[in-house]
Amino acid sequence: MEKLSVGEFQGQVLSAFKSFFDEESLSGFGERARSVKEGVLSEGRHRVVVLDLEKNGKSLKVAVKAFGRQGCLKDFYDFRKGSKAERSFKAGNFLKSRGVGTPQPIAYFDCWEGKRLVESFYLSDYVESLISFKDSLIQAYHEKADCRFLVARLSHIASAIRRMHDVGFWHRDLGNQNMEFQVSSKGEWGEVQFIDLNRGRIREDLSAKERGQDFSRIRLPSAFLNVLVRIYWKGNPPPEFTKEMLSRRRGFEWWERSRRW
User: Fold this and answer.
1) Full-model pTM
2) What CATH number has the domain bearing residue 157?
3) What phi and psi values does residue 182 have, to the nearest 5 degrees?
4) Is the four-CA dihedral 125, 130, 133, 134 of positive or negative sign?
5) Where among 108, 125, 142 does a domain terminate?
């Protein structure tokens, strides 16, 4: 991992990819990420696109998350604690170093004007044909998959979440859309890839309450959620986990409804 300082950008890059990031390649990078029409993975306040980087006859396909501008209070926080891009990069490297699935972090770079964050980008390896847990559930419901199929998939997800928590990572935004995987031609799920890591926290050991908070944003019918939880805990969960999960779920559901007002 090396420091990246090119023109107006400051950040970090994995040593193996440093040659792709120089003044020429980063000139107009923000405009390119914001205006490209093909390879758009996500639109909104933060935009995620696929870009091909080329240097000295080599090419690198990356997923670029271009973070949107934010208010001065959040800029003040990020100036002290690190931008969302920086936190994503550090979290991704933490997970990869401990054998937890996430697309390989490549680099992050920010442009600051004083204490205002003007541009911010997180780059990771682009993994082909990922499907989210959210979309896979929609597909399974549409195809009226039997319970054995769904329980097997819940076991796959529960094991991945347990592994992430046990190495000391508290995701804090663990919705169905932030767990992705590839599906083989035989319908088998690959390793779960956790994404949108910028809210995460690294802990020596996660408490039951912190684990419960992560489950609070997973959207499943109550019976399947209970199955997921029991697989995760290999039995009944501790009371403090359940209390926190249900309390946070109610709060999050209220927040989601209030956004429509």
Assistant:
1) 0.93
2) 1.10.510
3) -90, 155
4) positive
5) 125
The residue segments making up the domain with residue 53 are 2-125
129-148 residue pLDDT tens: 999 999 999 988 888 888 88
Q: In this structure, are residues 15 and 2 in contact, taking their beta carbons and an 8 Å threshold?
A: yes
Task: For residues 258 and 260, give the distance between their C-alpha atoms in angstroms, rounded to a whole number.
Answer: 5
261 Cα distance to chain centroid: 28
pLDDT of residue 144: 80
Give per-residue pLDDT as tens, 63-115.
999 999 999 999 999 999 999 999 999 999 999 999 999 999 999 999 999 99
112/153 same-domain check? no
Distance CA 111, CA 11 (A): 9
Distance CA(111)–CA(165), nearest Å, equals: 32
Helix (H, G, I), strand (E, B), or coil: what is residue 43?
coil
Both tokens assigned to 115: 């204490």
Distance CA 67, CA 121 (A): 6
Residue 44 is classified by DSSP as: S
Longest dimension (CA), the chain: 58
The last residue of one of the domains, among 125, 140, 155, is 125
- Residue-averaged pLDDT of the chain: 92
